[in-house]
TrEMBL record:
Catalytic activity entry: 5-deoxy-alpha-D-ribose 1-phosphate = 5-deoxy-D-ribulose 1-phosphate; 5-(methylsulfanyl)-alpha-D-ribose 1-phosphate = 5-(methylsulfanyl)-D-ribulose 1-phosphate
Name of the protein in its database record: Methylthioribose-1-phosphate isomerase
Gene3D superfamilies for the chain: translation initiation factor eif-2b, domain 1 (1.20.120.420), Translation initiation factor eif-2b, domain 2 (3.40.50.10470)
Organism of origin: Roseibium marinum
Active site residues according to the UniProt entry: D243 (proton donor)
Pathway annotation from the record: Amino-acid biosynthesis; L-methionine biosynthesis via salvage pathway; L-methionine from S-methyl-5-thio-alpha-D-ribose 1-phosphate: step 1/6
EC number: 5.3.1.23
Function: Catalyzes the interconversion of methylthioribose-1-phosphate (MTR-1-P) into methylthioribulose-1-phosphate (MTRu-1-P). Also catalyzes the interconversion of 5-deoxyribose 1-phosphate and 5-deoxyribulose 1-phosphate. Part of a bifunctional DHAP-shunt salvage pathway for SAM by-products.
Feature type site, description Transition state stabilizer: C164
Amino acid sequence: MKVNGTHYRSLWWDEDQSALQIIDQRWLPHDFRIQQVDTLRDFADAIVEMRVRGAPLIGATAAYGMALAARIDPSDAHLDEAFEYLDKTRPTAINLRWALNRCRTRLKTLPEDERAATALKLAHEISDEDVEINRRIGLNGLEIIRKIAATKQDGEPVRLLTHCNAGWIATVDWGTATSPMYHAHDAGIPIHVWVDETRPRNQGALTSWELGSHGIPHTYITDNAGGHLMQHGLVDMVIVGTDRTTRRGDVCNKIGTYLKALAARANDVPFYVALPSPTIDWTVDNGVVEIPIEERNEREVTHIQGLTAEDTIGQVQVTPPGTPGGNPAFDVTPNHLVTGLITERGVCEASAEGLAGLFPDLANLEKSA
């Protein structure tokens, strides 16, 4: 997508520096900073500290981390060490493990002197694949929005609600939940997006920054406003992303997604999840029981970051001194609350049959493993 008229991916390879460049998302939407990632420690820190965030982007970043590991020391032992080191950074987003497995498995079939070049090529492939997957998700989601738009009066927008940031900067490009929005807007369909603030890290501000840069009408709302809007008929469709989806269609996403799904069901509002296939965990069935939920630092809850009156980026404490903060980063929405899964291969119901119908090759591969 574009920043001040210039197209950017969320990460890219700098041939001159022979290094990965990332957008350091800790400072957005107030400051646009680019960071070069030079060491395995830099890669781990970038993922842990959410300089890069979003399941697809984490996976692509990890692939470049494995490429660096192969350049430093292409031995099996070092690749295993790098795998374990990067795998521990974020426990919930499945794309991390997916990318690491894909890289290590491929590299171990090769002679050591071929591994570095192949690893870098594979990281490029994973990034390019993510862009195309998200583009196709957008086209499939566009058809749902188009059908809703056909029921509207002339000029009346389709009103979408989204939670967290499943946008361009949570992927390599396009985004998952935002991709249908971009496609609809570019197709001339009037839309308006309700953007949840998404405490505690306020990733909704990132979504607002993206949508505003693209000229899409939107309103930033508190996390607790969504149910009220649905009650009053002001939401036509909820669309969110996912960090891990089970083989039966349970969806793990940013904390608060489950509550939106409950409100949507109570008010007959369709609830869709934009789902890239690498985010499906075919080894897990019951998401509530089996998916590990990351517990992040309590400071993210007790403090809030923003732009001060002096135009500097700073943090303030919002809780009384000594008050502990609980910070589960994700929750799981059971499949029966999900209207449909929007994937790069089409839209399906959130069920084992629905996912296997679109991805028989992946479902059968897991069965045979």
